Amino acid sequence: MSPAKNAKVAADLDTPSDLPQEATDKISKALNGLLADAFALYLKTKNFHWHISGRHFRDYHLMLDEQAAQIFATTDELAERVRKVGGTTIRSIGGIAKLQTIKDNDEAYVPPREMLRELMNDNKAMATAMRKAHKIVDDVEDAASAGLLENFIDETERRTWFLFEASRQEGGNED
């Protein structure tokens, strides 16, 4: 790609790709949105990990730490995928704030069950966004991004399931 063709990418960062510029732009937009949400979900999960309380403290604390690590691990893969196809990715907290759809939670205290439910719903939203991104990358025949997203969707569904089960009331099957 020449700098004229890809004016948004500095010449020194102009990664060669066989994908047309329109495809690169679509992939970059979709994956950067997921990247921003992954950072937002990571920080919220760590926030709740740091501030969880109650009789299930140890179990929840460990589960949230494990989930945060898994979410954080996706960030590098998403960002590097954007670069591999010739795009640029977010560069700052401000960039994350502009793109994130996962809402922050700055409350001084959140009851443990509400924490788990909020994270469960955020993970469900993340899976939905990943499926939308998967459709976009499928449409431009980007099999590598599709494969990456398939694994991330599975991991996100697992987190959703664990959060659901952990948040259920004792002795009941209510949601």
List keywords for this structure.
175 residues, 5 helices, 68% helix
Describe the fold and architecture.
With 175 residues, the protein is an all-alpha fold. It is built from 5 helices and no strands. The chain has helices at residues 21-51, 57-84, 93-99, 112-139, 143-167. The longest helix has 31 residues, at 21-51. The radius of gyration is 18 Å and the shape is elongated. 33% of the residues are buried. The model is unreliable at 1-7 (pLDDT under 50).
Determine the N-to-C terminus distance: 51 Å
Evaluate the radius of gyration. 18 Å
Share of helix, binned: 55-70%
What is the strand content?
under 5%
| Integer average pLDDT | 92
Overall strand count: 0
Task: Report the sheet with the most strands, covering strand number, pairing sense and barrel closure.
Answer: none
Give me the number of helical elements: 5
Helix and strand topology:
Elements: H1 21-51, H2 57-84, H3 93-99, H4 112-139, H5 143-167
Short description:
The protein is 68% helix and 0% strand.
